[in-house]
Amino acid sequence: MWALPQLGQEDRGMIGELSFGVAAVVLAAFMGVSVLRLAIGPTAADRAVALDTVNTLVVTTMVLLGAAFGQVVYVDVAIVYALLSFVGTLYIARYLEGGLK
Fold it and tell me: Over 60: is that where the pLDDT of 11 sits?
């Protein structure tokens, strides 16, 4: 049978750093595409969805940083940011529907 090599403590740290690095690059790429959509969106609704996507990616990045650095405060800030982002999205949607004047 095939046996996987045993990883030492320093190997696990390197793999963890690589994983967080790859995840950060992927999130940055997604955020770049969302910001591009925010800039060139043909309608206000497209821009609102792109802004909400950017906010979701910011929350995801904060949680990733909290996991990478082992700091719970990043997760707490991400939860508050997500709540405020949700409320902001509700106001934008209501404005687009013509409810706020």
Answer: no
9-40 and 44-69 helices cross at what angle (nearest 10)? 170
Count the helix, strand and coil residues of the chain and give each as a percent rounded to the nearest 5: 80, 0, 20
**What is the mean pLDDT of the segment spanning 50-61?**
95
Flag whether pLDDT at 10 surpasses 80.
Answer: no
Contact yes or no for 80/66 (Cβ under 8 A): no
The CA distance from 34 to 51, in Å, is: 7
Residue 54: other Cβ atoms inside 10 A? 19
